[in-house]
């Protein structure tokens, strides 16, 4: 958002925000929509995001307003880039830190060759099953709603594409990564699958979206800054 620009939220704007930790993507949409409605003194305006980020993830969240919401599907189909950290040696039901560890594995020495083979195995077209703690719909309900109630959730595997993947052990049992991937790729599932591949278990402990299509983290502003600019 250019501070000196006069915004036309009804005709449409594209806002590139840096989603804070702990917020849902809808939390951001709600805050921005409410601020615009108050500023323009209107009751309704379309505001939507172009790709969900989990509450425990930060980084690029693209919001569209007004007539620009028609572009959301286009942005959704673009590649995404992330970096983060996978904790090896244990798993959680949610594949991240939302839930407690459910299994701890015996320690295993990992070599550079293990990481090389791992990188090869997870680059290109791969099959991936979404986490049960995800926003996927099952008979009209979100999977996470059912999972949090302790109900059994079955999700089908699907093909996703990993264009680039960099992996590096930053200590004995933490694996840093950088990834560029197709729409619909669940990084939490990738963390779990990597742990399975290495036979040591794994879950995601840090995630930041660096880019969504042509929108980069360097072009983003905080939600607080966006609200200030809307209200000014």
Task: Kindly describe this structure.
The chain has 232 residues and is α+β, with helices and mostly antiparallel strands. The protein has 2 domains: 14-77 and 213-231, Pseudouridine synthase, CATH 3.30.2350.10; 80-210, Pseudouridine synthase, CATH 3.30.2350. The protein has helices at 25-40, 72-76, 112-121, 143-148, 187-198, 223-231, and strands at residues 14-19, 47-49, 58-65, 80-88, 90-91, 103-104, 124-128, 137-138, 141-142, 158-171, 174-181, 202-212, 215-216, 221-222. The strands form 3 sheets. Strands 1, 2, 3, 4, 7, 10, 11, 12, 13 and 14 form a 10-stranded mixed sheet that branches. It has a two-stranded antiparallel sheet with strand order 5-6. A hairpin with an 8-residue loop joins β2 and β3. It is elongated and about 60 Å long. It starts with 13 loop residues before the first strand and ends with a helix.
Topology:
Blueprint: E1 14-19, H1 25-40, E2 47-49, E3 58-65, H2 72-76, E4 80-88, E5 90-91, E6 103-104, H3 112-121, E7 124-128, E8 137-138, E9 141-142, H4 143-148, E10 158-171, E11 174-181, H5 187-198, E12 202-212, E13 215-216, E14 221-222, H6 223-231
Helix pairs in contact: 1-6
Describe the structure concisely:
The chain has helices spanning 25-40, 72-76, 112-121, 143-148, 187-198, 223-231, and strands spanning 14-19, 47-49, 58-65, 80-88, 90-91, 103-104, 124-128, 137-138, 141-142, 158-171, 174-181, 202-212, 215-216, 221-222.
């Amino acid at each position: 958002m250019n501070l000196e620009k006069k915004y036309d939220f009804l005709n449409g704007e594209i806002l590139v925000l840096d989603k804070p930790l702990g917020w849902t993507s809808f939390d951001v949409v709600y805050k921005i929509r409410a601020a615009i409605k108050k500023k323009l003194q209107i009751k309704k305006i379309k505001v939507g995001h172009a790709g969900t980020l989990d509450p425990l993830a930060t980084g690029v969240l693209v919001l569209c307003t007004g007539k620009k919401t028609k572009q959301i599907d286009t942005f959704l189909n673009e590649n995404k880039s992330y970096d983060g950290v996978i904790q090896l040696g244990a798993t959680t039901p949610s594949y991240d830190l939302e839930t407690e560890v459910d299994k701890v594995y015996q320690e295993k020495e990992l070599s550079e060759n293990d990481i090389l083979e791992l990188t090869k195995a997870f680059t290109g077209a791969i099959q991936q099953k979404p986490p049960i703690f995800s926003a996927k719909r099952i008979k009209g309900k979100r999977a996470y709603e059912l999972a949090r109630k302790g109900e059994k959730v079955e999700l089908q595997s699907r093909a996703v594409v990993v264009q680039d993947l960099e992996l590096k052990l930053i200590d004995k049992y933490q694996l840093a990564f950088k990834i560029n991937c197709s729409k619909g790729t669940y990084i939490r599932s990738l963390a779990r699958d990597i742990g399975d591949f290495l036979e040591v278990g794994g879950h995601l402990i840090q995630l930041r979206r660096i880019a969504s299509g042509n929108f980069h983290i360097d072009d983003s502003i905080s939600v607080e800054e966006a609200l200030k600019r809307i209200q000014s």
